[in-house]
Amino acid sequence: MQLALETPGLLSLAAGFTDNATLPVGSVAEALRALAVVAPDSEYLQYGTNAGRPGLRAALAARLAAQDQGAADVDAVAALCDATFITNGSQQALYLAIQTLCEPGDIVLVDRPSYFVFLELLGGLGVEARSMPVAADGRLDLPALAGLLAGMAAGGERSRLKAVYFVSYFSNPSGRTLDAAEKRGLAATLRAAGCVVPIIEDAAYRELGYDSATARAVPGILGDAAWEGFPLLYTGTLTKPFASGLKVGFGVCPDPAWRAAMLHVKGHHDFGSGNFAQAILEQAVQSGAFEAQLAVLRRAYLEKRDALHAALTAAGLPKLGWRWRMPEGGLYLWLEAPAGLATGFDSAFCRACLDEGVLYVPGELCFGDDAPMNTVRLSFGVLSPAALAEAGARFVRAARKVAG
Ligand SMILES: Cc1ncc(COP(=O)(O)O)c(C=O)c1O
Q1: CA 276 remoteness from chain centre
Q2: What CATH fold (topology level) applies to the domain 38-287?
Q3: 239 lines ligand 1 (CB under 6 A)
Q4: Rounded average pLDDT per 10-residue block, the chain, 404 residues
């Protein structure tokens, strides 16, 4: 990000920021007007409660129940609402989860590739990330996972395994969605190995399926009986699907002891939560502005995905041996370079990209262990379709240079 700011003309496909052009300025102004003018009551400028605004929690619980179960059953929504707490972005919920579960030296199983800021968080707390094996198609390799768990038990590491983490919808960085059978298979494999440990499902991009039905087809862990008996935490956010600057996310944790531990630590982090941003979002969700914004974003990100894909393809990247799958949601293309082509910060390819004026995230940052050297994450969140076309062309020129 610093390089992008310091280098004039550099086009960044690196930062996972949202699209400035579609930020919901009008909806936020409308929400503020409703708070400040239509129903003037200054409470939204007072400290918020530790768990967050009851109205926002209830609205998020109803939304989640509808996504997971198709209809919002009153009792189910009430239980979800009790389990929901609002955080300073879902990042805070992830931090609270690990802070309350792990000691230095503990192990967390992660998806492969995984969200690199979460991996950094683990490293910062002295916790070891261990990748769950995947097959060539990117799906979890459950027999290999069973083998890994057996090996951990045999090696005396089982007691250090404290949690399992995965990004399940339109993942950062891979763009993949874990399908329902895959998630159920994961639950069964963990259970069979005697590893009924806390599960963290990071659903940061669930709302950003270009066709909203794709995400609805796969229930979250809270809506699936396969996870019965596991302590569960589902994290979601209102940053990527609405306004990142409001920095509001949430956790839903039906396990009373784990939730109480997280809220206890959260009180130490926050001492009164950010009520103003929550009040704006409560208005936006209740008025329908949030849903309307999603429709805008889904169209905009689909157009941007296509613009970047078209630029890379037209300039001949597949002919140079690069491969990627088209994500059905989210903000990222995950590219695999030909074997042997290093893409790390100190690689010839990275220098060639900087010379061409384009920036990316080296994929090696996105692995808990055993990182391949030839992957790249490209974000199409920030740049316009026209700028993405130019950035894609530059990226391919760099690939051509190192291809010799
Ligand atoms: C997979 C994933 N999880 C969580 C987050 C945290 O987002 P926020 O704290 O803005 O909710 C991000 C942000 O990029 C992300 O990509």
Answers
A1: 24
A2: Aspartate Aminotransferase; domain 2 (3.40.640)
A3: yes
A4: 76 91 96 87 92 97 90 85 98 98 98 98 98 96 98 97 97 96 97 98 97 80 96 98 97 98 97 95 97 96 98 98 97 97 97 96 97 97 97 98 89
Q: What distance in angstroms lies between residue 155's CA and the mean position of ligand 1's atoms?
A: 34
Q: Which residues, including other chains, have CB under 8 Å from residue 301's CB and lie 6 or more apart?
A: 19, 208, 210, 329, 330, 331, 380, 381
- CATH architecture of the domain with residue range 2-16+292-403: Alpha-Beta Complex (3.90)
Check if 16 has its Cβ closer than 6 Å to any atom of ligand 1.
yes
Q: Ligand 1 centre from 38 Cα, in Å?
A: 33
Half-sphere exposure (Cβ direction) of 396: Cα atoms closer than 13 Å? 21
> Would you mind telling me the total number of residues written for the chain in this entry?
404
Whole-structure pTM value: 0.97
Query: Cα(312)–Cα(342) distance, rounded to whole angstroms?
Result: 19
- Chain centroid to Cα 382, Å, comes to 16
Quote the DSSP letter at residue 352: H
